[in-house]
Amino acid sequence: MTRDDILDAAAQVFRQKGFHGASMSEIADAVNLQKASLYHHVNSKQEILLELLERALGLLTDHIAAITSQPIPADQKLRQMIRAYLSALADNADLTSVLLFEHRSLDKKSHARHVPQRDKFEKLWRDTIDEGLTAGIFCCADSGMAVRALMGVMNWTLTWYRPEGDKTIEQIADEYADLMFRGLLK
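The structure assignment produced for this chain is given below.
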């Protein structure tokens, strides 16, 4: 039994029951450990949550940072970022669900530790939009607002997307990018 096994199981339990609805006993059961044995690997449910959030943000940041460093126009970069982000959400649904829906359960100390990582991640998106604004490719009054709107749309996808559905995650990503770039007006 490894710490990674425990974290993977905890992500699944948190996704199914929510942080507050999940118990350490359920996490222990998911990895066939006694509850007391689980505490040999982790100190608390809060510790597990913070580690899962850090893991998820690290994964997403790595995916997106690799794209932002490419020498391509900002619109192409943003389209690739949207595709990579949605694919990472879908491919790691348990882990990313915890990030998107359980971050509010962090205690104050853990929250203070989490926020700089979250801000670093969001800055990658803002910098790409700002790059497009500077190049005259994009037009918006507030890049921060554009990022929050885009993130909201993409994050909510995790609640309804099904791999066996009518559209692939790549098709959804392309439609989001088209909507972002062209809007609804004819």
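Interim note for the steering committee: The chain has one domain: 45-182. The two ends are 57 Å apart (CA to CA).
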